[in-house]
Amino acid sequence: MDTLTSPNPDPIHPATATAALPPAVAESADPPVLPAGPACVACGEPAAVHWQRRPTDEELAEVRQTEEKRRVQALKLADMQQPAPVFPPLPTAGDVLRAVYACAAHAISLDGATLFHLSSCTAPNEADLPGCDCTPESLREAPLEEEVPRVLLPAHWLSAGA
Ligand SMILES: [Zn+2]
Ligand SMILES: [Zn+2]
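Above: the input record for the complex with zinc ion. Below: its predicted structure, written as tokens.
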């Protein structure tokens, strides 16, 4: 024989409709922290400088997902009378860059900051400062010095030298 535990009928439980409470005014002790801007990824201080690196696999996946969603949305909104929009291939790691922020104390060298760093770059890392632990890609492909055609000034514009 099982002894069934029956729920005890609530003897006295006045079903008073709780008066709607006024919306709680949030008076947090902390002053609202305004997002002043990007923070140093090493110490959290306000960033003074930044450079760029390639995305990690997760970051790239996120970028591609966002782009895919955007395209699905665009297709939904597209005019049916028109040919469907054609999208370029989804971005690859070569198309995406992530900014890395650092305070003045954790800044890498200016030369280093002009390069694209690898996704695996751990900068700013105090052990490597002011360098980093990757071999960044160079942005400067073609030297610009040779590009400017030099037009000779007329002789009488040149400072009269003898
Ligand atoms: Zn820092
Ligand atoms: Zn690097």
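Notes for the reader.
The mean pLDDT is 81.
DSSP finds two helices and three strands in the chain.
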